[in-house]
Amino acid sequence: MNKYINIIIISFFSVLTYYLKIGFVFFIPIVCFFAFHNPKNILLIIPSSLLGLLWFNREGLLYLAVLLLAILIFMLITQNRNYYINLLFIFIISLVSAVFPQPNFELIYIIFFALVSTVIYAYFCYNIQGPLTKQNRTRNFAYNETIMAISAVLGATAIPGLMNIPLFVAMYFAMYLSQNRYYIHSVFFSLMTMLFLRFVFDIEESILIPFVSAFYIFPSIYAPLSLISFCLLGWFSNTPYFNPLTLQITIGLAIVFEIIKFMIINIHEGKDLAAGIYQRSLENINNEVIAFASFLDLFSRSFATPKEYNQKLSEGINNLTHFYCESCYVRNECYSKNKGKLYTFFKNLILYAKRSNYEFSDSEESVFLKSCPYIVEMRKSSILINEKLNLSATSTKSNALIAQINGVSNILRQYSVDNSLKNELDIEIFEKIYQGLCDYGFNVCYFQPQKMLINDFLIETGIKGETFNNIKIIIELICNNHIEQNVSCLFKSVSRGKTYVNIVPKINYDVEYGYGSIAQEGNSVCGDNYLIKHLTNTKLIAAISDGMGKGFMANQESATTLKLVDEITNTEITAETALQILNTFFFIQDYLEKYSTLDFLQLDRAQGYLLFYKMGAASSYIFHKDGSFERIINEGLPFGIEEIIEARKMIIKNEDIIIMASDGVFGNIVDDNDFETFVNGIKHLSPQKITYEILNYARKRKSKSKDDMSVIVLKIIVA
Question: Distance between alpha carbon 397 and the CA centroid of its chain, in Å?
Answer without folding.
Answer: 48
